[in-house]
Amino acid sequence: MQELSWQKSSFSGGPEGNCLHIATAPDGTIRLRESDTPDTVLATDPGALAGLLRHVRVQDR
Questions:
Q1: DSSP run (H or E) holding 1
Q2: What is the mean pLDDT of residues 5-18?
Q3: Is residue 2 scored above 70 in pLDDT?
Q4: How many whole angstroms separate alpha carbon 39 and alpha carbon 35?
């Protein structure tokens, strides 16, 4: 498997040091992991992640 290029979320890095990392896999899926458990990786497609983010933004209002 090709090594992924992980990027830290711009919302990460609070005083606890918890960070969310995101990467795009060669097949186009989005991969997510937390800094405290980097071996646990979630996979989703871009459309599903966009839908989740829209929902979270609406709930935050």
A1: none
A2: 79
A3: no
A4: 9
Q: What is the pTM of this model?
A: 0.77
Within a 10 A sphere around the Cβ of 20, how many other Cβ atoms?
A: 15
- Two tokens, residue 2: 């090709």
Residues contacting 25, CB < 8 A, separation 6+: 2, 4, 31, 43
In whole angstroms, what is the distance from residue 9 CA to residue 56 CA? 16
Q: Where are the domains of the chain?
A: 7-59
Query: Hey, is 33 helix, strand or coil?
Result: strand
Placement of tokens 């990027």 in the chain = 7
